[in-house]
């Protein structure tokens, strides 16, 4: 069995993540809910896709009013997904295939069904102040509401206790009171529990909100950082080099402190604001929006990394954009009101891009060549669609489409937990894994080639990144260098072909070879060589090309 804890402390920079919702992935027992045994059945598929780390949405017992982000028991597995033995079996089967498994850990809040909350609202001794209670809903007035479509306050009155409780998300998700040392100790016990079970890491949900302090916006409080440092120390003690990814949906300069000194807080953080700008750049046919945010992204400690993504289980968030950019994004990508939620867009990748293969490819090529560890969201590798008739963010969490059968190969149950997409251009009968397996030109096969190419080049992930100037603003030119490895990725963001020579004087004398290109581009056959000084660009609409100075493996 491969060693699950790598000795290379920065292995995560070269990893590719795959985010999946257990409930929607594979049902192994016909009850209509995906489960952990189902994920085990599909591990070979995930290995063949080439991903390294599976990120599972929360798997603990939950009333599922927020798909598991409303936890009712931190040290167990929801019965619909299986049990702890199933989770152990998943870890072992994944490790056998060289895959790692992480899950969400929701530190900030619990479900209101959690026994701790039930005890706290009843003022039971010992649990009385495990949550943030107040007689005055005017407290912490400077705090924004996050779920703007469903909540108008961060306080909800509890009839049982006769006081208000604090919550940054849904009213059924009361925030834990981190000023209470018992809460801090208990959550560390939770972490220890999963680490000792053998988990490879966590995505730490909503970490900026742990502590509250009057007179602030209650985000990024010093005590929150101090607690996260305790968590990092605990993880290092039990499982050094674990995959520890923090969710901080903020501007890069506000996110930076969560890396700590590079060794004592989060090794990995999402780069949220670059995401909408990739979509913006493709819609505008210009690289400017990407340049703007990258120029505002400070250098980070070498021991740390960004994590980048195109879509995930939430809305495509437009919190970290200007009002003008938000208006543009809504108009282009969410013209109908029902496509919007909170401050964002509740659509999947393929429908956002009108199912156009060129746009899908050019965005993924950027995802793989920007600085950071990329995430793929389940179903996007085959171009799945969304179901806007479902409420909230459920439309992007529908059953995985494995084949053309009525249950899409996801389930044999007549009534799955959510309907399989059965109509329109994204119906399971048309968009499914089995059909794409048979077609070497399919998106699935293309994604496999993309992931494989990414992993051939240590410069992607580990390298120093530079956005090069190009004479044509439609071209996004990314240079990644790491030791001897150089990768230049050229993207045509425009809807029209672009050609010419791209001067890169600093690569003069290097022989570059074209190693990968989109099917909508025809710069030259893969394998063509040139002097790095002048790259011949002949890219079709949304075409892209990767040039590398590294010889192919068989020639080394
Ligand atoms: C998760 C959401 C969830 C929220 C509350 C977010 O950061 O990504 O899906 O609703 O936290 O836990």
Beta fraction of the residues?
A: 15-25%
How many strands, which pairing sense, and closed or not: the largest β-sheet? Answer: 8 strands, parallel, barrel
In whole angstroms, the N-to-C terminal distance is 28 Å
Q: Helical amount among residues, as a percent range?
A: 25-40%
Global geometry:
globular
Tell me the structural class: alpha/beta
Stretches where pLDDT is under 50 for at least 5 consecutive residues are 552-556
Strand order of the largest sheet: 1-2-3-7-8-9-10-14
Q: Give the averaged pLDDT, no decimals.
A: 95
Count of DSSP helices?
16
Radius of gyration: 23 Å
The molecules bound to the chains, other than polymers, are: beta-D-glucopyranose
Number of extended strands: 22
Textual characterization of the structure:
This protein has 16 helices and 22 strands. The chain has 556 residues and is an alpha/beta fold. The chain is globular. The chain starts with 16 loop residues before the first strand and ends in an 8-residue tail after the last strand. The strands form five sheets. The chain has an eight-stranded parallel beta barrel. A six-stranded antiparallel β-sheet has the order 15-16-17-22-19-20. Strands 4-6-5 form a three-stranded antiparallel β-sheet, with no helix packed on it. β5 (155-158) and β6 (163-166) form a beta hairpin. α9 runs antiparallel to α10. Mean pLDDT is 95; it is low at 552-556. Beta-D-glucopyranose binds at residues 66, 69, 106, 169, 205-206, 247, 313-314.
